[in-house]
Write a structure and sequence with these properties.
- The structure is a single chain.
- This protein has helices spanning 6-21, 25-62, 66-69, 73-82, and strands spanning 85-87, 94-96.
- It is mostly helical.
- It is rod-shaped, with a radius of gyration of 24 Å.
Amino acid sequence: IADSNPEQALAALLHAVRITRGESAIFDVLNQARERATAEIDQQVLRESYEQARLVSEDLMRQNTFLSERGEEDILRDAFEDGSSLVCVKCGGLVAKIRWE
């Protein structure tokens, strides 16, 4: 483990599980490890998606739009925050989900 050798670390873990909990426990341990890894990856993807959405939102809020000219930027901000709208990747505009099709 100290040498950063994942194969040796896995072999040591499986050996320890085999000795302490039996051969049948190996599958449970591997399944738990896979579930944890999957959950961590899903969390990272979600964090990255939120960060990208935040950046797009900030960019749109800085643009000179009809709503910003009228002092109604809060409408855009609310649409981002409540998830009722999406950003079009072609034009960069904010589109209501119900009109997205």
